[in-house]
Amino acid sequence: MNTTTPHARPAHLAAVALLVALAYAWLCSALKVDDVDRYWHELGTNRFFWDLGHLWMQPLALLLYRASGGVLGVNHTLEAINVASVALGCAVFFATLREAGHSVLKSAAAVVFVAASFNLMTLGPTAHIKLMVLPALALALHHAMRWERAESAGAPALRDMVASAAWSGLAVNLLVSVLPQTLLLALFMLIRSARRHGVAQGVRRTLPYAVTLAVVGFTLLLAAYATARQTGTTQAADLLSFAVGGLKEKQALQTWVASWKEMPLRFAFSLINNFAFLPSLGTLGRAWMWGWLPDVKPVLPSLLGQAALAALVGGLLLATAVVGAQQALRRAAPGLLSPWAFVLGATAFSYYYNLNDPEHWFQFTMPVALLALQLRRRWLDVWLLGLVMPVLLAVNLLGYGIPKARFALAEREQALQAALGPQGLYVGFAAYPGEPDSSLFNTAGIEHFNIDLVQANDTPGDTQALLARLDARVDAALARGDRVLVFRALDDEDWRGPVMQVAQSGLPRAKLRSHLAARYAISGPVDAGGFPAYELRAR
Predict the structure, then answer these.
(1) What is the Cα–Cα distance from 500 to 330, expressed in whole angstroms?
(2) Could you tell me if 226 and 236 are in contact, meaning their C-beta atoms sit under 8 angstroms apart?
(3) Helix, coil or strand: residue 522
């Protein structure tokens, strides 16, 4: 490693931020994904929702919207926040790599690897503002690396330790899944200091980080509660119920207990999927293993291609982990502790929570790339930047980013509206499957029966009650002379979420098809807004 620390030139930082911002702005899509409808409503009504899982995220977005005077409108304001966040995060990451001794070219290529990763591309060019946390995460990692270099050289490192803790505290208040990363970094700092200076000195040297993290985190939590009470946006009677209520709501989504046998496979796939666009490998693979896929031959070419990409990326991740663990155990080389803390912290949360949701996995992207480069193995650099980076750039852009950005939403919504008629019945799912889907369409006047929502909220554990509700809605629509179309729920080749969850909860596709076929005439698939659908008619 160089004895003098190189610094990124301001012109280079500006160029990185500008190029990433332009690329992500170009990829912005008219499609609204996941929680975007809720964010639109909150900004549109000048209110926000307090959720401990993402404590300051919506309020900060609202404040930025107010500060801008709303000149961009709700949607473009949210998109601008996300795009700017990715651009700033990438610029900070570039600076981190340069200060770690990597060349301008290698640092720029690593930024492309990060910016082209699938989960960042999924969230970044949208109004889904989860990436607001990215600059704070990048700065926490940046100052942790600075602390590590200074501490190894015997130089003063208190300023960077405190800065890393402060940015980590802000990141935790934006996205609570960051918390394990901050705690592991504190633990690694303590272990390293204790080995060199003894336990008592180790505690004393680590205390500024722990105190700063606690003070910043609790102060922001207290400020959030005070603001929420003052504005009437929470019903919590006290700070404890405000915090615990948010935790309970977040915990209700946790799924690992029900799938503990699959946890290692699910974790490995989700981590690979963080980097690579694998539209059906996980879902079709599970359906085939469980014996729910009638015939794997029609989808075999797609599965093999995705499996090859997964092997390429998975091999890189495995090699990085193995070599990184070996090198970290042999010697405490500067530049390994910080990325390992962030990687293992993200692992602790994501392995436990076990949802393949982009907001729970993009935290791996920067520290994994940094760890791989810090190992300083030429063959690993070639694998990461010479092979995987260009493949991911091509696959993620051509397979996902560009088609989503060019998606003709208005025309497709009109076509779907025409297919269903003015008061037709749409039967399908509400959950976002990760790709453009008819569930994202705004279809005014169209009646919806979302199987996953009814199963989870109205008829939990009672499949017969769910089917009875569905029959009543279908019969009423047919009696009115309206058209009834079923999307995805009867498509034998579509196993994206939440099809698997609905099946595990008592309604596999074969059971739904058998029930509907006994009562109605099923025809199709027909094209409805560019999506396959099955029509139900009275016998």
Answers:
(1) 44
(2) no
(3) strand
- Per-residue buried b or exposed e for 68-98, using 16+ beta carbons within 10 Å of the residue's own CB: eeeeeebbbbbbbbbbbbbbbbbbbbbbbbb
Q: Are 365 and 119 in contact (CB under 8 A)?
A: yes
Phi and psi torsions of 413, nearest 5°: -65, -40
pLDDT band at 259 (very low <50, low <70, confident <90, very high): low
179-202 burial, b at 16+ Cβ within 10 Å, e below that, comes to bbbbbbbbebbbebbbeeeeeeeb
CB 38 within 8 A of CB 49: yes
Of residues 405, 410, 445, 406, the one with CA closest to residue 426 = 445
Task: Round to whole Å and give the CA distance between 427 and 507.
Answer: 14
Q: Residue 104: beta bridge partners?
A: none
Q: Angle of helix 104-115 relative to helix 10-26, nearest 10 degrees?
A: 20
Instruction: List the one residue out of 482, 492, 478, 495 whose CA is nearest residue 524.
Output: 492
Structure confidence by residue, pLDDT tens digits, 52-107 = 778 888 888 888 888 888 888 888 999 999 999 999 999 999 999 999 999 999 99
Cα dihedral: 8, 11, 12, 16 (round 10): 130
Peptide bond between residue 460 and the one before it cis (omega within 30 degrees of 0)? no
Strand blocks (E) in 439-504: 447-450, 484-487
- Computed over its alpha carbons, how large is the radius of gyration of the chain? 25
> Residue 28 and residue 237: Cα distance in Å, rounded?
40
Residue 36 or residue 379, greater confidence: 379
CB 484 within 8 A of CB 477: yes
Q: What is the pLDDT of residue 38?
A: 79
Instruction: Provide the token pair at 167.
Output: 């940015």
pLDDT in tens, 138-185: 999 999 999 988 888 878 789 999 999 999 999 999 988 899 999 999
- d(Cα 236, Cα 514) in Å, to the nearest integer? 47
* Residue 413 token pair: 């919504």
* 370, two tokens: 């940094």
Tokens representing residue 113 in the block = 């690897």
Pairwise CA distance, residues 378 & 323, whole Å: 13
The strand pair at 447-450 and 425-428 is best described as parallel
Average pLDDT, the chain: 87
Q: Would you state the pLDDT for residue 3?
A: 43
Neighbours of 349 (CB within 10 A): 18
Q: Sorting pLDDT into bands at 50, 70 and 90, what band is 346?
A: very high
State the amino acid at position 399 in one-letter form. Answer: G
Write down the pLDDT at residue 292.
72
CA–CA dist 138, 537 (Å, integer): 55
